[in-house]
Specification:
Strand content: 15-25%
Largest sheet: 7 strands, mixed
CATH architecture: Sandwich
Number of helices: 7
Radius of gyration: 19 Å
CATH class: Mainly Beta
CATH topology: Jelly Rolls
Structural class: alpha+beta
Number of domains: 1
Distance between the termini: 58 Å
Order of helices and strands: HEHEHEEHEEEEEEEHHH
C-alpha cells in the first residue's frame, strides 16, 4: 500500500515538473538586460550586402548602450548557416562561471532570417548547478539581435528552414577581462552545417539537455571546452558547434 502511494506521489511530482518546464512564447523583451540576463531588439538598419564587420559596427552602439560601462566586442565572430545547436547549454568557452572572469560576459547573436530563434531560461546565469526558471522562446523578424549573459542556459530553436537559417554571433567582455579571452581573439569562423539529425531524436536530446543540464554543464563541461584525442564521449557531444573547434 505504501509503495503504491509513493509511486503515485513520484508520478504526480514528475508530471507537475514537466508541465512547469514546458516552453512558452514571449512577446516582449525585458527592458533591461539586468532584469533577466537577456534582451532583444529588431535592428531597423539595412544590413543586406554588408560584410560581417560592417554589420557588427551597426549593432555595436546599441548593444553596448544596454551594458554597463567599459564593455567591448572581442575581435571574434562565428557565422553559422544551417542547423542550430538545439540542445540546452551554457557558453562554457566564454562564460564568467567557467573562465572565472571578474565581470559577466555576454553573447550577441544577429538572426538573419524570419522565424524561431532562441530558447533560454531567464536568470539561469544565477542558478548553478540546478535551475528553477522555465525556458521561454524568442521568435521574430530578420535582423533581430539577441543579447544574453553567456552563463544563461539556452538552446537554438529547432531549425525548420534548413540552409536559410543564418546566425552571426559575437562576444562581448569587460576590458579588464580581455586577457582571459586570448584564444578567442582573431577567431573568425564560418560554418555551413547539414540538418541530418532525426527530428524525434533531436527532440529527445533537447528534452534531456534541459532536464539534465546540471550534469552536462556542471560536471561534463570540460568535454565541451577542448577537443581531446580518441575521446569517445565527445563523439556524442555536438562539440563542433563550439567556437574553439575549427
Amino acid at each position: 500500500m505504501l509503495s503504491n502511494t509513493v509511486l503515485i506521489i513520484v508520478i504526480t511530482v514528475l508530471i507537475l515538473y514537466l508541465i512547469y518546464y514546458s516552453e512558452e512564447k514571449i512577446t516582449e523583451s525585458p527592458k533591461n538586460i539586468m532584469d533577466s540576463g537577456f534582451m532583444y531588439y529588431e535592428c531597423n538598419e539595412n544590413l543586406e550586402n554588408l560584410n560581417v564587420i560592417q554589420k557588427q559596427n551597426i549593432i555595436k552602439e546599441k548593444v553596448l548602450s544596454n551594458l554597463p560601462a567599459d564593455y567591448v566586442f572581442l575581435d571574434y565572430y562565428y557565422y553559422i548557416k544551417g542547423c542550430s545547436l538545439s540542445t540546452f547549454h551554457r557558453d562554457v568557452t566564454s562564460g564568467q562561471k567557467y573562465l572565472n572572469t571578474k565581470y559577466p560576459t555576454y553573447t550577441v547573436i544577429l538572426y538573419e532570417y524570419n522565424g524561431d530563434f532562441l530558447s533560454l531560461c531567464p536568470n539561469s546565469h544565477n542558478q548553478f548547478p540546478f535551475i528553477h526558471s522555465k525556458p521561454v522562446n524568442i521568435s521574430g523578424k530578420s535582423n533581430t539581435v539577441v543579447i544574453f549573459n553567456s552563463d544563461i542556459l539556452h538552446a537554438g530553436m529547432i531549425n525548420n528552414i534548413g540552409i536559410n537559417r543564418k546566425v552571426l554571433q559575437f562576444k562581448v567582455a569587460h576590458k579588464d577581462d580581455l586577457d582571459v579571452f586570448k584564444e578567442l581573439n582573431n577567431v573568425k569562423l564560418e560554418k555551413t552545417t547539414d540538418c541530418k539529425i532525426n527530428r524525434q531524436i533531436e527532440n529527445i536530446l533537447r528534452f534531456l539537455s534541459l532536464h539534465f543540464s546540471w550534469l552536462i554543464n556542471g560536471i561534463s563541461y570540460p568535454l565541451m571546452q577542448k577537443k581531446y584525442e580518441n575521446n569517445y564521449i565527445q563523439e556524442i557531444i555536438p562539440i563542433s558547434f563550439y567556437n574553439n573547434i575549427k
